[in-house]
Amino acid sequence: MLQYVAIVLIMLGLYGLLTQRNIIKIIVSLNILEIGVNLFIVSVGFVDGGLAPIFTSTYNSSVDFSFVDPLPQALVLTAIVIGVGTTALGLALAKNIYQKYGTFEIDEMGEE
Amino acid sequence: MSAILLIVVPLLAAFISILFKKASPYILLIVSFASVIVLGYIELEVITIGGFASPYGINLVFDQYSLIGLYIVNTLFFLVVAINCVKFKEMSTILLIALAGLNGLLLTGDLFNLFVFIEISGIAAYLITATNKNPLATFNYLVAGTVGSSLYLVGLIILYAMFGTLNMADMANEIAVSGVDASLVAFPFLLMFIGLGVEAKLLPFNSWVKGILASSNKLTGPIIASVYAATIGFVVGRLLTSVFVFSDTLGLVITIILLASIIAGEAMAFSSNKVREILLFSSIAQAGLVVLVFLQGFIGWGVFLVVANAAGKFILFTVTNHASDELGTDEVNDLKGLFVNNKIVGLAFTVASLSAIGLPVFLGFVVKMNILGDLFAEGNLFIPAVILITSVVEGIYFVRLLIKLWYKEHDLPVVQYDFIIKYVVVILAILIMVFGVYTAPIETEANDLDLISFVEGGNL
Predict the structure, then answer these.
(1) How far apart (Å, rounded) are the C-alpha atoms in residues B30 and B95?
(2) What are the domain boundaries of chain B?
(3) How far apart are CA B209 and CA B284, in angstroms?
(4) Scanning every residue of chain A, which has its alpha carbon at the shortest distance from the alpha carbon of B161?
(5) CATH class of the domain at A2-47+66-106
(6) B150 touches chain A (CB under 8 A)
(7) pLDDT per residue over B330-386, tens digit each?
(8) Which residues of chain B does A112 touch, with a Cβ-Cβ cutoff of 8 Å?
(9) What ipTM goes with this model?
């Protein structure tokens, strides 16, 4: 079920990227896309009724406990960090664009 | 010595260069030079990181294929740095990070690790292109690059959910063993291909290239068009020939898109009146050709096509961008007669462009002729026809450009090339000519690479 939500978010992000002509709104769309991707990654490792993948003193391997897959969680951590970096860089560029053109609207910049 | 130093040392140096701002250009120069030298002292091996054996942990594959890639990329990177380190002092830290990312891209044997390195080198590339003083184009590049790598990630995760592995060799093995229908893996492959296609400048995903390269300077032009293009060429080559198995239909669709990419690139270059635009559209066409050659399964000659392109585009962009930085324009008509007073640089430029067309005596000819020969041997006539026709178009616009740049009687543009630019472009031009005549070592190497089988452990 979670996958569908993630795919909807990815599509929403792509739609925003294709239709919006405002720098800040494009960055927001990019973030929605990234959140969708991150949710999708986490959902891949989800196991119904699974435990957090940590060996504790109460863990008993004879009882059939199944762990959720820890690898996608590790991947998503990396992806989030990269996403934050990209967003910060995008906002820095947005500031440069505003200083050069005095607007965030791409259509008002008088360039292609 | 271990090949992991090629990634770790530039990263460490990047942090150190923040502490010693004044010394940072020298740190960059020393580290990038050392990366070239050290390559001769590293043994071919597969490096396991963190003590986890290969399918579970990340591994770096330092084989014959990545060795050639590392030599080319590190050498060209060092030359770019040598030309620019004085003028672009503030970019030293970012260039060091870019070097780490590029070496990582060439070395990694893990698909998620590849994504991380794409992002590291990508973020460095956005920052480097910010020196173009065209923030809108850089922003477009950032958006395109981020969407591309997100799609790559989605495709990768679908593959992980299907096969339970992220290791390249293991993934190729699992796909072959499981006997999954090719149409099931077509979708994730396509997503990953799109992600790499953004960086590789393939047709529908390359809208950022014009903004970046048309306003490029002496640093960004050679770095993006030569160093980054070569790296992505090697990465795409490894994935297309060893990991992805395209079904016939999907392969056909991608072949047609690539052919369209080549034709469109050459046509746009033909109709351009600006030197930098001619070069950038020509490099789009060449990128399409590189991916096409790898898609047909010719590893050896694909590698040397990447090498010939990288060396040629380095000369072309360095010479053009220096002139347009000095004159403030890159209209062909304003640059008329540029080489009348700069004969040595002009000769190097001529060699590079003739090699790009594929005339005999130059490296480009050897590569193109062998690729065409292999295609004919397979009974494939359509692709060679497109390659030959586009070569003629390429010939027309390059010769037209050369005539304009060489001949003019008065009002010559005044451009001074420093000693180091002259030295670098002439050496590269001589190498292009030497290997265009003395083809034996290239042919042996290409045949060796064709035998590559990217099983666990690579082609050691």
Answers:
(1) 13
(2) 5-450
(3) 8
(4) A44
(5) mainly alpha
(6) yes
(7) 888 888 888 888 888 999 999 999 999 888 889 889 999 999 998 999 888 888 999
(8) 211
(9) 0.93
